[in-house]
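Ticket reopened. Same input as before:
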Amino acid sequence: MIEPVNVALGLAALSAVLSVIATYLAVSDRDLLRALIFSALQSTAYAIIFLVLMAPDIVLVYVPVAVGIYPAVVLALIKRVGRFEGGEGGE
Amino acid sequence: MASRYLIAASIALVVVSLSFAVAYGALGTAVPLENIRSLARAYVTLAYAPWNRTLTAMSPEAVTSIVWDFRGVDTFFETTVLFGAIIGTVTLFRGIKPSARIGEGLSIIARSAAAVTAPMILAVAAAIALHGHLTPGGGFQGGATAAVVALVILVTFSLGYLVSGLSKERALMLRSAGLLGIAAVALIPLILGGVVFQNQAKELSQFSYPAYIGGALTSGSLLFYNLFESLAVAAGLTLTIMLLLSPHEVVEEAVRGEEHERV
Amino acid sequence: MSEFEASLSLIVLFSLFANTAIALYGVFSKPNLVKKLISMTILSDTANAFAIVIGYRAWPSPEESPVPPVLTNISGGYAAVQELVQKSVDPFPQALVLTAVVIGLAVTIFLASIILHYHRTHGTVEMVVSG
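Engineering reply: fixed in the latest deploy. New output:
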């Protein structure tokens, strides 16, 4: 019998490990578009952590901001300045 | 090469000191805590306490009552930072008029799906904002969710479609109306003999917003703060998204015209 | 609190430390301004997550979770509030993080427009120091 406390905290720990992998890929990838998608993945993992840590207010503000508006803003930026790090880039 | 070692050493130092501070300064030796702190205990006890009318915020939602009642002045200045950033963005993009020319947008399938989901998201945003004093949610959450609607419309229909409904000036006006509403709700108690940011009656100042309107719990000023804050956040974020996603040529033209004027 | 439970909490905590280190590395050593912006948002998200972790508390019993700081039984009177205090998490860090997330978004938008203007005048976003 698995106790509920271990299920909840295990979900949080799994999301935390996922967020570390996503952060590493976001920082190391030279393709900015992929880095942005990994960053959104890290935000999703954080949203799950916030849910397990009993912060519904934060989840409600974090999901539209970090998964909705913020990638759109950085996407507009990447479209102008070029997709690859170290490249000449730009329209 | 030496700079790389310096970077590594400084990151290690910052992370180690931060982990020490969090683990022993904030969490205690056991992770996590067995009990909440006495300050949190006071906030949760006093958030909804009709038997203690001089100290309570009359809202079952402890987070919202901290944000707009117990620590209202904090939130006021945090809102000021938020709108300082938005005003900075608007200033950097001054002179740009997002054109109201309606583009093609995405395919008919995407547009139909957006036409169905956008009103639903807007309804959810309104519910989050207006029930902020009863359930998890509030002005910030509702406003951010409503800004996603503008983003969905912008991506699927085109910028011109959004601008023809909500022009730059109108978004600025809505944002200012929201901010004025917050200021008015904060200052009305001062005019009527209370103190700034007062919600319920206190020992020394008897002014009180009505905690119940028509039998429904409205938690005094919290409902009005949530309403105006969601309006201001939604309009401000929509405005900045509109400016940031406006076409390259329009921005170039505005910037070049400005340089000509200066010369 | 059992050993296993404590180690799961420590995994969450040390993952956040690792994220802090990786994001700081990105801010310091990547020459691309957009990459710096992405790393900085990860850093601020992690700082917010630390605040939430500080407000969390252990489960009252293995079957019964702590609850969000929201009173669901309004007509329950004083006893319901006391029961909530026994099980609720700390609402104060949540109230601070709430505004911090929205402000972080506004600052991100501001930095994005500054980077756009930088690209317009200099034609690049790479911060390479020659020599």
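The longest helix of chain B spans residues 2-26. Chain B has one domain: 57-262. Please confirm and we'll close it.
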